[in-house]
Amino acid sequence: MTGKERREQILRLLHDARTPITGAELASRFGVSRQVVVQDIALLRAKGAGILATPQGYTAVAGHEPDVHRSVIAVRHDRAGTADELMALVDRGLRVVDTIVEHPLYGEQRGLLMIETRDDVAEFMRRMEETKAPLLSSLTDGVHLHTVEARRPEAIQRAIDELRRLGILLTEGDDAAGAAGPSTVSPGH
């Protein structure tokens, strides 16, 4: 199999998969090293293929989803509040797409999460403890944004209400300078 054929098959697999596929899984499937897969993904991206590298593996970027509602929610909590925050979101049917912080030197910094189930939260928390890696929000004293998605806008509102109840939702009245309150983007955008 040529590299071009392998890349075509990788792209097809990613488009057909319902969940992300790790680089190790792709390497094993095609009998190549993980570094070859990383290179293949880079070449596919350079040609315009919509591929995201998430913590769970590679996934093809979904096309236009008219029934998906998106919102950006501003929160503030310490490391210990991470599980409560994520559970509050996924338990109300939301997908947590990313986390965003405003770095004083580099500007907006975004980390893809793609968390949508309790199992995803548990895996994130396991990796967080195992790696001891600092959260992006440690750069901003716990202030960060999440892009979230849901099939129904009322699910987003229920999640916002729960974050407010937990005391971690930032709103315009909070003291954090420049923190934006929740904002909803129209469906499919």
Q: What low-confidence regions span 5 or more consecutive residues with pLDDT below 50?
A: 176-189
Return the CATH topology of the largest domain: Histidine-containing Protein, Chain: A
CATH class of the largest domain: Alpha Beta
Helix content: 25-40%
Radius of gyration equals 18 Å
Content of β-strand: 15-25%
What is the 3D form? elongated
By CATH, the architecture of the largest domain is named 2-Layer Sandwich
Describe the biggest sheet?
5 strands, antiparallel
Structural class: alpha+beta
> What do the pLDDT scores average to?
86
Short description:
By secondary structure, the chain is of the alpha+beta class. It folds into 2 domains: 3-60, Arc Repressor Mutant, subunit A (Orthogonal Bundle), CATH 1.10.10; 69-185, Histidine-containing Protein, Chain: A (2-Layer Sandwich), CATH 3.30.1340.
